[in-house]
Amino acid sequence: MSLTRRTALATLASAPFLAAPAVQAQAPVEITFNYPVAVGGPITKLIDGYAEAFSRENPGIRIKPVYAGSYQDTLTKTLTSMRGGDAPQMACLLAVDIFTLIDEEAIVAWDDLPGSDAPWLDSFYPSFLENSRTAGKTWGIPFQRSTIVQFWNKEAFSAAGLDADKAPQDWAEQLAFAQKLTKREGGQVTQWGLQIPSSGFPYWLFQALTTQNDVRLMNAEGTRVAYSDPKVAEALQYWMDLSQKHMVHPPGIVEWGTTPRDFFERKTAIMWTTTGNLTNVRRNAPFPFGVAKLPAGRRRGSPTGGGNLYVFKSASPAQREAAAKFARFLTTPDRAANWGIETGYVAVTPAAWETSAMRAYVADFPAAAEARDQLPDAVAELSTHENQRVTKALNDQLQAALTGRKAAVPAMADAQAEATRILRPYN
């Protein structure tokens, strides 16, 4: 055999090995998914499980959850990574971060992503979409969403001569109930009638009171606030009077994080908190409890709250397509129902409440539907451009009033002046 023929045969024999790299499967598309973990409940296990299930259904996509602390920690870490050229492709951040993320030119609209059709984008509860849309675009997909509800200790109600199955329905009744429920021994309060947290998210709890007093704290464009509206000061005065005048509510600042524990330890008979604590309360309350919509002032109402899903401009076309698939996976009716059942957050679409699992859950635990039933009266959570600074202006003055350092009207006037100064460039 000639040298030339031997060389040709050797080349043919080795050809499959030389061609192997060309026929290997492509590397999976990887999505870094920043997620807040300071929200209570079995969050990390659930998200890890959803990510793994999605990857089994979509072997060409790998979801990498990164748990980044509180919502604030997650936002800070995400924006810092973005400015350093290492942004995640997807994150769950507060719905109220919408204007901040747009102003930072950090995110893309879901309307512009493949697979994000109008029927899906319109399938969420309208009250959740208020904090998800602006300028004709959908920037956030509702996922970890909530409203504020009231929890009450039925044993404490019975002991106070109240109907254990009836929550206060309006502000006057709330005060009357709280007066009966507050217990004192030796000059010391052993059980408060009512507890509304004023740390962590004081503006959010306060927005429930302003909504009930029939005033909205901001415009839809996020460029103006109504802190100095007389009805805002009136709502603050009601909150102040609960502790400073009627003495049925703890004085000073009430901690957000310890309020559920105070409820479990019978230090308060009624608490206001996120529906996201529903599963926590169900598992840990050592007494029968009730859950209800918040009481009415001039009207009923609560702000919505919680987190939306965002996609970042750093994502490649393939990653954007994968992120849209993952968001649709997370919000299918069965999965949204599972999320609501396991965490207490509100399942974000009407279709989720029609699933067999959710129907069975509500039949067994009717309180689970209270937050959903409050949605028709819910409003968008306080959200503006420069949102953290604008809400801080309100938080600082709320705490000054609640600690007795300022009266309601001047506190709200000062909050308005600071917020107006911050928002001036947007007007």
UniProtKB/TrEMBL annotation:
GO CC terms in record: periplasmic space
Keyword Signal on entry: yes
Record carries keyword Ribosomal protein: no
Main location: periplasm
Keyword annotations of the record: Signal
CDD domains: PBP2_UgpB
Gene3D superfamilies in the record: Periplasmic binding protein-like II
Cellular location(s): Periplasm
Signal peptide: 1-25
Family, similarity comment: Belongs to the bacterial solute-binding protein 1 family.
Entry protein name: Carbohydrate ABC transporter substrate-binding protein (CUT1 family)
Organism: Humitalea rosea
Lineage: Bacteria, Pseudomonadati, Pseudomonadota, Alphaproteobacteria, Acetobacterales
